[in-house]
Every structure is written in structure tokens, then in C-alpha cells.
Task: structure prediction
Amino acid sequence: MVFTDSMGSAHRAVDPSMHSGQAFSLSVCRALQEWFEVDDLCCITFIYVSSALWWDIHGEAHRYVTELKVRVGRRKTDNSIDTLRSQAVHSVLDSWSSTFKDPTYRGSEFLELQQPDGRPLQPLYLNGGPWLSCFGHSITEFARVCPCITGHTPIGAYYHRFKINEPHGCTCGAALQSRQHLLFRCHDRYSVHYPRFLGDIASFMKYNPTVFGFNRDPSGVR
Ligand SMILES: [Zn+2]
Result:
């Protein structure tokens, strides 16, 4: 009979499948297997005892068990599935970061922005990455932000680059309506400074609610 204040830990202790404490669980299972094989009547009953009851013998056992430190492997956690997963994730992120520096991978017109600490903004898998976590709440805003950041936005410079029969100039009179012009230099748009952070882009989109969007349906689209 095993008295425990954590049925989750008890279940984990006899669970041989992959998890962070698998090495400990396998040791427990190996010891129990020998004991079970001695007699068919051998069985274990787990009984939950809340630690809030302050059962003195239970408290004493708890103190004894938590003082016992068992090391598995050469280092403390070098063979746990959590460590292996973490190493795999870091390896993928490193590779993703270095690939992202290549303009042929991310796109030659990709808008470079910074993290709050000044380092270049990097792709991450958490919360969809920095771009989606900042703008993903609004499909209409993201529909303007995404083309702006990737450089595939319906503006004069894009029409010029892809030889599309649309005006290349800006409504303010500038000869070429580039992204940089719209973000910082256009007299018809409101901007304070050239955007360095995602928050700057968010402010710009807020004060200029139609820029970088289609102002009419492209021909053939209804
Ligand atoms: Zn302009």
C-alpha cells in the first residue's frame, strides 16, 4: 500500500513511456517486476492522502524521500527526453535564424525590424512568431501589414518592379511611391519616424488606415 499526496507523481513513477523522468520510472518498473513475479497475489494499492491533513508519519516519509537524491546518467538531465527535445528545438531555431539572414530565403524586400533590445527581429514558433502575435488579432490589419513587410504591396514601386500597368508615382506628387516613401517621407501620410519596431508599424497602420491595402478590386476580381 502506497500513501501519496500526488497521484500524478505515483502514476508517472510506474509509467515506462517517454517522459522527462523515464529513467527513474524504468528503475521503479524493473524493481516492481521482480517483486510481482514472486507471487500472483502481489499487488500495490495507491491511496491518496492530502498533505493538508499533516499526517505525521506521512510528513516524515515525505521528508525522507525528498532528502534522497538519485542521479541518473553522467550529468543530471543529459539523457532525459525533455533535454533531447530542447536540444532539437534550439538546433532548429539556430538553423532558422541563420537561414533567415539570407535575402534569397526571406525575400529581398523583407522589411527589417528590431526587437526591443535592438537585435534584428527573428522568426520564432512561440505564439505564431513575433509578426503574427503582434498583428494576428485583426485579419484586416494583417492583410495590409503582411504585404508591407514582405514587399508585395500594391504601391507604385511594386507596379514598377513587376512592370504592372498602374501608376508608379504617389498621390503627394513624388515620382516613385516606394515603401520607404510611404512609411516616412510622404506628405499625404502621417508618420513620426522611420519604423524600427513592430509597434512603430502598428502605430503607422492605425494613423493611416488605408495605406498598403488595395483601394479598388484588381481587374477580374469581384
Ligand atoms: Zn507620397
